[in-house]
Amino acid sequence: MADAFDVVVVGGGPVGACVAALLAGGAARQAAPLAVAILEPQRPALTAPAANVDLRVAAFSRASERILRAAGAWQAIAAARISAYERMRIWHESITPRDRAVLCFDAAEVGEPNLGYIIETRLVQAALLDAAVAAGVRLYASGFVGLTLSQERMHVATTDSALSARLVIGADGARSPLRTAAGLAASVSDYGQIAIVATVATERAHEHTAWQRFLRTGTLAFLPLADGTSSIVWSADEKLAGPLLGASPQQFARELDRASDGALGATQLASERLSFALHRLAAARYVTERCALVGDAAHVVHPLAGQGVNLGLLDAATLAELILGACDEGEDPGALRVLRRYERWRKSETEFMRIAIDAFDRLLAHGTGPVAQIAQRGLGWVNQSSELKRLFMSRALGLSGELPLAARAAQSDRSLLHR
């Protein structure tokens, strides 16, 4: 006999854990609470304060902070080691990092305490899973095997159990076995770049600033960490990435100093180097009968704008809001008419962001023609316009576009999801 739920989430990463926590945490709803389960074979624990900083970090926007509050996870995250960044400095290799034409964003210009936080993704995942379990979500340490659709339920086979649900949510990453099992196609293409991730010590303080330089061979970012070090994300063309990964720590630091133009002085590797190939992914459809995709299972964008996890958390909040609203109206949460509302809402938003990010990569990082030169000079022009800067900062904060209620709410009250 299969264990029966209203919703089964396949994948307990930050996005999957978030949608589960939001769905289970509807304390203000008049209807009965939803029965929710997560399939996640590897549940991480909250990071010990003395442990080394995990290399996998991400920039979380203000909208994401609000969603994490609504999910009941922010208190545990904020109590750990997070690093607020107050400014961003963005420039093209044709100018120096201290040039007046460098594009500078400062939170003070829009009356915000910061522009977001650099946080270990493992910490966010652990806090969200804890919040989900506290809200009543059942966690299965099982792997996904397959799907079978009946008239009113989706049957989920796992490595050691059988489940059924009115709705199954795929949050199992870019290679999503669930997406394949559900028959949802996705287009995938290669950027021809390798992202190199590491922690570095820098001669000069990072100034609670995210630094990003566009190069003809890729993009280099320094993300400020709480202990004074910085996480680098170096998206380098494949022909450059190989020698960088094979270089000694001293040789790598010299190449990093050259690529950053000494923005933070001399650097020194403080960790190993991780690398992964970069590709874009877009699911043709985000939903089918009794199945919906969120996060990387639906879309993958270039990391240069740091929007991947933020887009995923917006997916989670949007889907949770629409499902809970549908249930309050007596609708079936797995009905296609309900899920298509989610697809229409989020697909347009993510497609807009994908096009914009690809244009940045093509024109600012790799462009050499007249249009690219105009775009590169445009960074300085934006810096001279307070109105344009506010527009860009609003996007960076995640506060523009069509937002779910959880992303618009300044409070942590979960009942805001159900107004």
Explain what you see:
This protein has 419 residues and is α+β, with helices and mostly antiparallel strands. It has a domain at 3-84 and 119-189 and 280-362: FAD/NAD(P)-binding domain (3-Layer(bba) Sandwich). Helices cover 35% and strands 28% of the residues. The protein is built from twelve helices and 20 strands. It has helices at 14-24, 62-70, 74-78, 121-134, 177-181, 238-246, 249-260, 308-328, 336-365, 370-383, 386-397, 405-408, and strands at 3-10, 36-39, 57-60, 83-85, 87-92, 103-106, 116-120, 138-140, 144-149, 154-158, 162-170, 186-202, 209-215, 218-224, 230-237, 267-269, 274-283, 287-288, 291-293, 299-300. Strands 5, 6, 12, 13, 14, 15, 16, 17 and 20 form a nine-stranded mixed sheet that branches. A hairpin with a 5-residue loop joins strand 14 (218-224) and strand 15 (230-237). Helix 1 (14-24) packs parallel to helix 8, helix 2 packs across helix 8 and helix 8 (308-328) runs antiparallel to helix 9. The longest helix has 30 residues, at 336-365. The radius of gyration is 21 Å and the shape is globular. It starts with a strand and ends in an 11-residue tail after the last helix.
